[in-house]
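Example (one chain per record):
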Amino acid sequence: MDKSIIKLYLGKCLKEFINAILAGLMISFGAMVFLFCSAMGLKILGCFMFATGLLLILLYGYSLVTGKMGYILENKPAYLIDCLISYVGNFVGTFLAASLATLTKFFDKDNGAYTNDVMLTLERVVEGKLNDGVLSLIILGIFCGVMVFFAVNTYKKADMQLARIVTVFVTIGLFCICGFEHCVADMFYFSLYSFTHGFDKFGVLIGKLMYVTLGNIIGCMLIPSIRILRSKIRSL
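Predicted structure:
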């Protein structure tokens, strides 16, 4: 294979990876807002503020794996590599954000400004996922995937700018209020929990993350799959 082609492909992969790290950071900021709002008794506000993370990703063209999953069927098999790069990059971004957050006064137990309510909220969120069953995590992941697909696809295809933005906040706010499972948000919660409580349960958390990821993949591909099936039925 031509070296120039290899160099071009590696450059594309590197760009995808960097954009994925940035997307992970954006979701981490949304997840942090959710934790702080929930700790103050403003969970509903936190759910809608969480959507800001996805809106920034869409506005700046960053690479969120759940934003890409819905287009697997309409792309070549090589697209799966892009999704994998995005997944790893998203994890790096959330892991980095979590590690940096623990260096601030909000998560430093030796600091007088240590925010105990936020830590309790984090524990409630993560331990709820730890105690959840496999089937529940997958189904909640599917529901989330459907909402994310509608948010991303509407943003890409709607003519009215207002409709695009409103759809992002409504769909993401909906899945957050209902407690649906988003794998990238969970990457941040699990990383932050591990940094603040130790990594003893990290392996178990990664296992939970895999179930959520499976659910997200199914959910993001559900509407496109139905659309393809419907078009084939019409052509009979």
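Caption: The two ends are 43 Å apart (CA to CA).
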